[in-house]
Amino acid sequence: MADTDASNNQRIRQVVLAIPAGQVATYGTIAEKAGLGRAARRVGHALHKLPADTRIPWHRVVNAQGHLSLPKNSDAHATQRERLKLEGIEFSVNDKIDLRRYGW
DNA sequence: GTTATGACGCCGT
DNA sequence: AACGGCGCCATAA
Question: CATH: 3.40.50.300, 2.60.40.1930, 1.10.10.60, 1.10.10.10. Which one for A2-102?
Answer without folding.
Answer: 1.10.10.10
